[in-house]
Write a structure and sequence with these properties.
Number of helices of chain A: 5
Radius of gyration of chain A: 20 Å
Distance between the termini of chain A: 65 Å
Order of helices and strands of chain B: HHHHHHHHHHHHHHHHHEEEEEEEEEEHH
Strand content of chain A: 15-25%
Strand order of the largest sheet of chain A: 5-4-3-6-7
Radius of gyration of chain B: 26 Å
Oligomer: heterodimer
Strand content of chain B: 5-15%
Order of helices and strands of chain A: HEEEHEHEHEEH
Largest sheet of chain A: 5 strands, mixed
Number of strands of chain B: 10
Helix content of chain A: 25-40%
CATH architecture of chain A: 3-Layer(aba) Sandwich
Shape of chain A: elongated
């Protein structure tokens, strides 16, 4: 067997290795340019207390989670039990960002499914969403004590993700 | 009950295809004639069973059986019957079934048309195809069963993506798949000859018409897809270097190289191991294309549902098929004899050079397509590779290829006096230079790129015309000679279209209200009005545009913006006035607050030459297949 006739096979094996690795990666997962940048500031009305407002500045000094959701979003309903679990763990407060929604629908959904949020900010026209680069609901951000975004996840949270990434990250960030 | 029969037919087809794949191959190896004889009946049975399965799926669409999950996901009761049938291959499961069915169709054609061939060879070819069929059927049955039921049945289906509700879709995938899958025949012949150790001219002669046939289908399929994208997507482009497009284009490039290399193997007995490698590569790339499209490892506008199990299955299948073939190649190819010697200036050299350029261009397109995946796998970040890469890498490789195309056909096998060739070609060179200078000036603006495009296109045309005249004087040229010239002419026509559109198209995005006029490329386009028009399963806003030139009415154009009931995404239906020398393309955008409309207007000179060129290439292929020497073979078979 002459070596040069093996070249195509070797090239192919290299290709297969890459394809196999590629299968386990998600091409849609684009890193957010906001990672390690300060969370964009905003001040908008809260969902349940329309006369009160919420601003990320008020969360300074603690690690918190921003979860973008909406009552019209099917994947959010799927994510909901995971969020409830996260809230029960009391690792970090979850702030909701109700994105492009109707107030009544959103409140009805929380009443029916349980409310994992400390409070929700009501982003009716999606302005805050633009600043945060939201391009699909749900999305989740972990923000540290200094108000810097440390982690972003697009799509519903899963228990696996909580255990593998988010819990370790939060306890890491909470160390003084 | 009926869909269960379809499912059952698929399972039976898998069992029989295993017989088709295993027994003839073992029989050929051990010399057991009775096992060899199983190849044809087994292939016929598989074909019949897959035909039944396919017909049942089509029937389920026809009668709106929404208890079948696949039907519920891709059709609905308002969908016109034609598109309901087109929807059979509008999704993953159905298109895979089509893939396998077409593969089995090729097999049956090989089985029927190869009676003159040595029976060991036929048995091996059918066996190899049987193995491929069984692998794919296993894939269909385990991960992509189109007959999966939905309980309780859906009230109505989700409908076919409106983008796909178009006559183009009804024909594009079957054509493309016929081409894709057709390379399996050349592949099977290559494997069979490696197995038997008989890599000879006879093998090349047998593979050639099959390869050409597959290549014709692939050419037409790609052209149809490009044409569909042009008029349906509303962007006015004809090629986007999208991963899925590339997945069909890479096998085409390698298939083109294979066609030419087979000619050398048939006529001169040369390039044997190279030709075998190309045959294996062409089909492997078709499989790789299937993997890329179906596994979702790359992002593409052709957003197909992705399921990791499917990706893993195809990857394993790909590894088994391609890995074992290349292993066999490494083992057996070194034993093949060298062909006749040839000098540096000979047709062999020119075909080899052309082959190198085609393979390099295929490699560069493949690299660009896979690059995001490679970079991601190496944890170097996420990137995407777009048209700038492909244009700047692909186009320069095509320049020497086109130059070679003008010279190669003039050279003779074995040894050729280049001086004589140059003497005969100086006129073509002169014509090319004149065209390269004068056409851009006639179009009103000289650019180097446009000049180069016309120079190369007319170089190929003039060289071809001179040669046809010469051959006609010398006697009746053969069909395969005419076919070759027509196909090369097609390339030139294609290049003219691309050059014209690239250099001289005009595009205007304007805001228009009724009564306003926009002019583009010497034409005036006036918006008359915009009306609400109902369609069978959508409502449309239809604009009426009057196209005039120098005050004379040329056409009335009706672009639409459609809202399909089953989808929230509005669809743009462009209106195109097609002409031999230009297209006027009008598409209706958003409605603006003050009752005016965003309108996009294109003037596209010679754009239809792009697809016309593809048609000529396919015609050239058809002429080549119909050459006398293949008919003589068929006659021999019959007697």
């Amino acid at each position: 067997m002459k070596a040069k006739f093996l070249i195509p096979l070797l090239l192919f094996i290299v290709l297969v290795v890459f394809l196999a690795i590629g299968l386990n990666r998600d091409p849609h997962e684009v890193p957010s340019p906001l990672i390690d940048k300060p969370a964009p500031a905003f001040e908008i009305a809260q969902l349940s207390e329309a006369h009160q407002s919420f601003s990320p500045a008020s969360m300074k000094g603690q690690v918190w989670i921003l979860n973008v959701w909406a009552s019209w979003c099917v994947a959010c309903r799927e994510e909901h039990p995971v969020l409830v679990d996260l809230a029960k763990s009391k690792m970090a407060p979850i702030i909701g960002l109700d994105y492009k929604d109707q107030r009544e629908d959103a409140l009805a959904m929380l009443a029916k499914q349980g409310n994992p949020y400390v409070l929700s900010a009501f982003d009716a026209n999606g302005r805050v969403g633009i600043d945060y680069g939201v391009y699909g609901v749900p999305e989740t951000y972990v923000i540290d004590k200094a108000g810097v975004i440390r982690f972003k996840h697009i799509g519903p949270l899963t228990m696996e993700l909580l255990n593998k990434k988010i819990y370790p990250l939060i306890s890491d960030l909470q160390k003084p | 009950m009926i869909p269960e029969f379809g499912h059952y037919a698929l399972i039976l087809a898998l069992c029989v295809s295993l017989i088709q794949g295993v027994l003839p191959l073992v029989g050929a190896h051990q010399g057991r004639r009775e096992w060899l004889m199983l190849a044809r009946p087994a292939a016929q049975t598989v074909f019949l069973l897959l035909g039944i399965a396919f017909a049942i799926l089509a029937w389920s669409f026809y009668v709106n059986d929404f208890s079948v999950l696949y039907v519920a996901e891709h059709s609905n009761s308002q969908l016109p019957v034609v598109y309901r049938l087109g929807a059979v291959w509008g999704g993953h499961e159905g298109s895979l079934l089509l893939w396998v069915f077409l593969l089995s169709t090729w097999t049956i054609m090989v089985a029927q048309l190869s009676k003159a061939l040595d029976e060991f060879m036929v048995a091996r070819v059918i066996g190899v195809l049987g193995l491929v069929i069984s692998g794919l059927l296993l894939f269909v049955l385990t991960t992509s069963n189109p007959f999966m039921r939905l309980f309780p049945a859906a009230q109505d289906g989700r409908s076919l993506n409106p983008l796909l509700q178009d006559p183009g879709l009804v024909f594009h995938p079957p054509m493309l798949y016929m081409g894709y899958v057709g390379f399996s025949v050349a592949f099977a012949f290559a494997i069979a000859s490696l197995l038997s150790g008989r890599l000879d001219a006879a093998w090349a002669r047998w593979s050639r018409p099959w390869t050409t046939a597959a290549w014709i289908f692939l050419t037409l399929g790609i052209a149809l897809g490009s044409w569909w994208a042009y008029y349906e997507l509303g962007w006015g482009g004809w090629w986007f270097w999208d991963p899925v497009e590339n997945a069909s284009f890479i096998p085409w490039l390698v298939g083109t190289a294979l066609l030419h290399s087979l000619a050398v193997t048939e006529k001169r007995g040369g390039f044997k191991s190279w030709t075998v490698l190309l045959a294996i590569t062409a089909f492997s790339l078709s499989l790789l294309g299937t993997f890329l499209v179906r596994s979702g490892v790359l992002t593409s506008v052709h957003a197909f549902a992705t399921d990791p199990r499917r990706g893993i299955f195809i990857l394993i299948f790909l590894t088994l098929v391609v890995g074992s073939s290349l292993g066999l190649y490494a083992w057996r190819a070194p034993k093949s004899s060298l062909g006749g010697k040839f000098s540096l200036s000979s047709r062999e050299t020119f075909i080899l050079l052309g082959n190198v350029f085609l393979v390099v261009s295929a490699g560069s397109v493949l690299l660009g397509t896979l690059y995001p995946l490679l970079i991601d796998a190496l944890h170097l970040g996420k990137i995407s590779v777009g048209p700038p890469y492909f244009n700047s890498v692909f186009v320069p490789i095509m320049i020497p290829l086109l130059v070679l195309m003008g010279i190669g056909p003039w050279t003779s096998w074995k040894n050729s006096d280049l001086l004589v060739v140059i003497k005969r070609l100086w006129l073509a060179g002169l014509a090319a230079v004149l065209a390269g200078i004068s056409i851009p000036l006639m179009m009103g603006e000289f650019t180097w790129l446009a000049g180069l495009g016309f120079l190369l296109a007319f170089w190929v045309i003039a060289s071809g015309c001179l040669q046809i005249i010469r051959q006609a004087k010398a006697g009746k040229p053969t069909r395969s000679f005419i076919g070759m010239q027509v196909a090369h002419l097609g390339i030139a026509v294609f290049v003219i279209g691309v050059t014209m559109v690239g250099a001289y198209q005009e595009e205007k995005d304007v805001r228009m209200s009724a009564g306003e006029t926009v002019s583009v490329g010497g034409y005036q386009i006036r918006l008359q009005d915009v009306n609400l028009v109902p369609g069978p399963n959508y409502q449309a806003m239809r604009g009426t545009f009057l196209l005039t030139k120098n005050g004379i009415t040329q056409a009335t154009l009706y672009p639409e913006k459609r809202n399909y009931f089953s989808s929230t995404m509005p669809m743009t239906e462009a209106a195109i006035d097609t002409g031999l020398t230009r297209d006027i393309y009008v598409s209706l955008g958003e409605e603006l607050p003050d009752k005016s409309w965003a309108v996009r207007v294109y003037y596209k000179p010679f754009v239809d030459w792009i697809w016309g060129g593809c048609l000529l290439m396919a015609l050239g292929g058809i002429l080549a297949i119909s050459d006398k020497r293949y008919r003589i073979q068929l006659k021999k078979q019959a007697s």
